[in-house]
Amino acid sequence: MPATPVTYRAGVPVRCVAFDAEDCFDEVEAVFDELHGRYVLGLVTNGSTSPDRSPLAGRFDFRLAAAELGIRKPDRRMFTTAAAAAGCHPTELVSVGGQPDHDVAAPQAAGCRAVWLNRTGVACPPGIVPDATISDLAELPAVLARFDAEDAEALGAVGVGPHPEPWPDDARLDPDLLAAGDRRNVADRYRWWREDAIVEDLAAHQHPFHVAVENWRHDRNIGAVVRNANAFGAAGVHIVGRRRWNRRGAMATDRYLPVHRHDTVGALLAWARVEGLAVVGIDNVAGSTPIEGTDLPERCVLLFGQEGPGLSAAALAAADEVRAIAQYGSTRSINAGVASGIAMHAWIRAHAGAPPT
């Protein structure tokens, strides 16, 4: 019965590997010997797979079985539960498995990385984009090393080292960060703060606008929209349509602000009406008015469409107004990440004061 093991090492992503626990391929034991001790290993399975009945007995730190949890892959909760068992955030988990829907799309929907173990060379189903593809498990350590190097480079480029002693007497500060340094991509005023303290402070100063983006075709720009929303102090982000979106592009900023999902534009509109928010579509279509002409409403939802086609017909019909961003080149549109930054900054110029120092 195919299953998905999970690997974890503090400070780098969790790694997941698909294998047949009772009939391993030739390279599996050697790969697990290489991973064992460097990572925490866990087994996530929809079946009755037991490591004790395989050559991999004794190599796993935990086991999660669908029959015991009451949920099954492709339910993304299987992977958020695995992250909790490994003691990490879902963005620090990478699933590696042989089933694109169960082992790639599902963990990515939970915010994890995903590596597809494609032993037969078949084409990946449309709409599923693995973070890496391997044909043999022996390729996995190199992929993990590349992920580790990417994360180490990103972490080393920002942040500060350990705080000089004596440490400040401030309950918002995290002792682990004070001792080891803070390499997160956060503003200087939040250095060494606990994550929940940052979330609480941001919520206390959030602006009364929200950002929504349609996700019918798995638009990979959505991560940039979330990152922009965090930068400009939006009250929240709303994904309309598919659950899965490119969390890596968000640079972990989805940890710090609410991200909601609505099945349809109608559901988003109903929510906005209850909250007393105007829905402002952002798209260069006939009948739109320039975003540069008049100020955006103070209490509003800025709604963006997909790369290429823009806002759907349902979104255009639901919007209270539609604004266009002035363009002077040959392309019809700019991607949602760029458009969201322009629109949010237009709101900031109209309604926000100077940012905190």
List keywords for this structure.
357 residues; alpha/beta; Rossmann fold; Alpha/beta knot; 2 domains; 8-stranded mixed sheet; 7-stranded parallel sheet; 11 helices; 15 strands
Question: Care to describe what's here?
Answer:
The chain has 357 residues and is α/β, with parallel strands linked by helices. The protein folds into two domains: 2-152, Rossmann fold (3-Layer(aba) Sandwich), CATH 3.40.50; 205-351, Alpha/beta knot. Helix content is 30%, strand content 20%. The protein has helices at residues 28-35, 66-69, 77-86, 100-109, 140-156, 175-180, 195-204, 222-231, 265-275, 313-318, 336-351, and strands at 2-9, 12-16, 19-20, 40-45, 62-65, 93-97, 113-117, 132-134, 209-215, 237-241, 259-262, 278-282, 289-290, 300-304, 321-324. The strands form two sheets. Strands 1, 2, 3, 4, 5, 6, 7 and 8 form an eight-stranded mixed beta sheet that branches. It has a seven-stranded parallel beta sheet with strand order 11-10-9-14-12-15-13, with helices on both faces. Strand 9, helix 8 (222-231) and strand 10 form a beta-alpha-beta unit. Helix 8 runs parallel beside helix 11 (336-351).
Task: Offer a quick outline of the entry.
By secondary structure, the protein is an alpha/beta fold. Helix content is 30%, strand content 20%.
